[in-house]
Amino acid sequence: MIQFIRLDHVLLCIPEGATAQARAFYGGVLGLDEIPGNHPSGAIWFQIADIQLHLREEAGGNYSKRHPAFEIANLDEAKQYLMNKGIDIEYSSDIDGRERFFFRDPFDNRIELLQFVD
């Protein structure tokens, strides 16, 4: 089984070329604190209470990379469990201090599971 701990972040997609507008809205209008850094795929990250909001430019289409990310306590076990159920595992860019993978539900929604590491 998968030992869920909490929702870690949500990634929302924005139109190509809209990063400045998104930064102005989420940082300026909503007043969210931007998390500095060179994030994967040019994403911008904001802190909302105890979760993060990630925004990334993406061309339109049905097969989106939008996703929630759940922190779990047993990433390797969860990966094996899902693979045993016939679920395809996807990988993405590395992020310091986190191990992670992705999978899709039967409706093509992307879900990330992650575990923080030292």
Automatic annotation (TrEMBL):
Residues 6-116 form the VOC domain. Signal peptide: none annotated. This is Phage portal protein.
